[in-house]
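[job 0412] stage=fold_complex status=start
inputs:
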Amino acid sequence: MVKLIALFRKPADPAAFDRAYFETHVPLVRQVPELRRVEVARITGAPRGEPEYYLMAAMYFDDRAAMDRAMASPENAAAGKNLMGFAKGLVTFMFAEEVGE
Amino acid sequence: MVKLIALFRKPADPAAFDRAYFETHVPLVRQVPELRRVEVARITGAPRGEPEYYLMAAMYFDDRAAMDRAMASPENAAAGKNLMGFAKGLVTFMFAEEVGE
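[job 0412] stage=fold_complex status=done
writing structure:
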């Protein structure tokens, strides 16, 4: 499995962010083709000091080719456009591949 | 489930980092009490530009109380001391809780 990870820094208005994220954005993400699973985790703290992030999402795909096709889809473009409406400057994306360790 | 997430920025010598991480550090992490699962993912890229991180690890626990006990254990102290020997300045930790979305 491969995944697209989104890390979000703390928004100025967390309640408004959460509404936009969970009520509008996640339903759009779920329409992205070949998406197998979405995991969202709230960041609740850090061992020392304040955590760098507020929320982390992982979107899972079967392999890199499937993720590339998904990234190029109109559904992903719509989800990205929606996200930029409320999370611009807060989000960092990266592609990841799980490894047996 | 709750998890401790570790994000690592790109090391100066990735091969040396990988040896230290997978051969020495992960075996110490596995000795931490109440740890249910470790997931390690290599960061393979980003939709735009260079990714901010090199590696992400997630250590899963049943609940926050179990994670707190694990963090306070001598096994975790040993793993942390080992980590600071090769990843100081590269690692960011945070606690997270998966949410139904």
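[job 0412] summary: The first helix of chain A runs from residue 14 to 29.
[job 0412] exit 0
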